[in-house]
Design brief:
By secondary structure, the chain is α+β, with helices and mostly antiparallel strands. It has nine helices and four strands. Helix 2 packs antiparallel against helix 4 and helix 3 runs antiparallel to helix 5. The longest helix is centred in the middle third of the chain and has 29 residues.
């Protein structure tokens, strides 16, 4: 049907937006349609390991916002160098959807029957659980875009302290967890697409292409220097950045062309459990 938007267009309209028009409202029929998108997400063993708490009462919204204001301050105090965003914009949301993960359903995933495979299946089941919740969160965000609204994905609700406070406000068991918090609103300004890697970098045909591998040093550079700009600049391609050469330096081709690793050499695994270097964007971080 030519007058129907392509689903790909809905995907491209999805934005992480943190500036909403104040004083707007939306009916529960639209919010129900949005949450129903999450309900149709795939999940391991079809367990549907989620519940969706929709906050559309301004008084409750303000309590949720207060939780995230404290969460943002903890980032400033204890995760120095991370480009955190103030959460005061939550006051202008029409609703906030929290995706609550119920860990009991992991019991339905494959379980080891021999001790030597116990760790392997426990790890795999955690991945199934988190991927299922991520699918529901993404479906909700696409449902938001389809309604002509916009949203963001706040992962901070999954932190222990933040989750405990949210559970107190919203009355869900504290052993469940808010893996996704999705503020919804009318965008205050038009937002361009954020940076996306060129398709040719991420698309591999029939086998992993080593020339598209991203080197350890590239990851270090992104984390320590480029991250805050790639997170928040409203340009899909870094080629359009007026300060591209200055910002990307020797890594310009790796971020803007199909070939990220001309030598085609793969590296052994390294420890990336925490940042490894300090750059101009993370000098405040204590090591």
């Amino acid at each position: 049907m030519p007058d129907q938007p392509l689903f790909q267009d809905v995907i491209r309209r999805r934005r992480s937006v943190r500036k909403f028009e104040p004083g707007r409202r939306i009916g529960r029929d639209a919010l129900s349609r949005i949450v129903d998108c999450g309900r149709w997400a795939p999940s391991g063993a079809n367990v549907q390991c989620w519940d969706f708490v929709v906050v559309d009462d301004p008084a409750v919204r303000d309590k949720v916002m207060a939780v995230f204001l404290r969460q943002a301050q903890r980032l400033v105090d204890h995760a120095k160098g991370f480009p955190a965003v103030k959460k005061t914009y939550l006051a202008n949301t029409v609703a906030i959807v929290l995706v609550i993960g119920d860990p009991r359903w992991k019991a339905c995933f494959p379980q080891a029957t021999t001790p030597e495979f116990d760790a392997e299946y426990r790890t795999n089941n955690e991945a199934i659980f988190l991927c299922s919740l991520g699918a529901a969160i993404q479906n909700i965000q696409l449902g938001v875009a389809a309604e002509g609204l916009t949203s963001a994905w706040l992962s901070g609700g999954g932190e222990d302290e933040t989750n405990r406070e949210l559970a107190e406000v919203l009355n869900y068991p504290s052993w469940m967890r808010a893996y996704g918090t999705i503020p919804i609103g009318f965008p205050a300004v038009d937002q361009n697409r954020r940076y996306r890697r060129p398709l040719e970098q991420v698309l591999h045909w029939n086998s992993y292409e080593p020339r598209q591998y991203r080197q350890h040093a590239l990851v270090d550079f992104y984390e320590s220097t480029l991250r805050p700009f790639a997170m928040y600049r409203e340009e899909e391609s870094m080629d359009t950045w007026p300060d591209r050469d200055e910002m990307l330096g020797d890594w310009k081709d790796a971020f803007t062309t199909p070939v990220t690793n001309p030598a085609g050499t793969l590296e052994p695994e390294a420890d990336f459990s925490k940042p490894r270097v300090i750059g101009q964007a993370t000098k405040r971080r204590k090591t």
